[in-house]
Specification:
Elements (H helix, E strand, L loop, with lengths): L1 H15 L28 H20 L3 E4 L5 E5 L10 E4 L11 H8 L6 E5 L14 H14 L6 E6 L2 H9 L7 E7 L10 H7 L3 H7 L2 H9 L18 E7 L7 H14 L1 H6 E6 L11 H19 L1
Parallel strand pairs: 3-4, 3-5, 5-6, 6-7, 7-8
Antiparallel strand pairs: 1-2, 2-4
Length: about 325
Amino acid sequence: EKTELKKMFDYLEKHFDLKVKPGRSYCCTPRLLTLEDVDPWHRPLAFYAGVHAFQLGKACFLWMMGFRHYVSTTGLQYWYRPARTENPPPPLLFFHGIAPGGSAIYIPMLLFGVADDGRALFIFENKPVSSHPSFEVLSEDETIEGVQEALDRFDMTGDISLMGHSFGSFQLTWLMYSPLRGRIRQFALLDPVSILLSEPDLIINFEDATPLFKVFLKELWTNFYIRRHFSWYRSELWLDDMPEDVDFFVGLAEKDQIVNGPKIRREVEIFGSEHPSFARQTTVAFWPKALHGDCLYQPSKWRDIRSFYDKSAKQKQS
């Protein structure tokens, strides 16, 4: 570790004329989320029984809508519905954020807004952030292998489209750096936490969240995953790593309580001004006065997301 630190210090001094002085500064206290004590808000058994009933209702509804449930050999769970039209757009792979019941609250947006164009749809589940009592945490590699297995199961070898909300943007980031990178053609992040992850905003907002958000963030199993089994340092999406042939969508809420929407917007715009090819492939939807998660139940925002996919598909065809 000392050798690696010396390399970084030498790089900073050589390229930025920034010399790190020896010694230690006591003016700042580092945040060590993977080492600090966990302070969860315990729920009664009735709460988890209610979540389980909610998930059963979701399962029945998805079954009636033509979905079937599968589990990969790595333990990744997902719902799949085949394409319903000839020559459909690339299949959409969706990853949800922290929410009781997992993907349940996302169903209206997906089925009646974004993905009602006949394309095949994969809805992946993340049990530890779904208020589901589970110590079964999937690693980055297990997630990637599970996604690959899901695509292989249905003989999908062509292009794919990805969409993730909030915590789901981490899974999308892993896939962007995976062997599936060359197949990704549409990449949509809603309320993304993976952009500017190394900035202090997310950690501060996570720790000082409003009581409503703490109801979800302080849940025991969610804390177990985030505070003990999540690799923060491997989950940031760097804009200069985005391929030039991938259409990129970023949906940001101005009043987001978790993500610094205006700051991410500036970062994307500044990077786009320096890289014209990135700017041409990127669409930013900045929703004034919107809060974190508003895009899940407001049809006007569904139309913004859907228009991105429609425009991107037409450009690919032409």
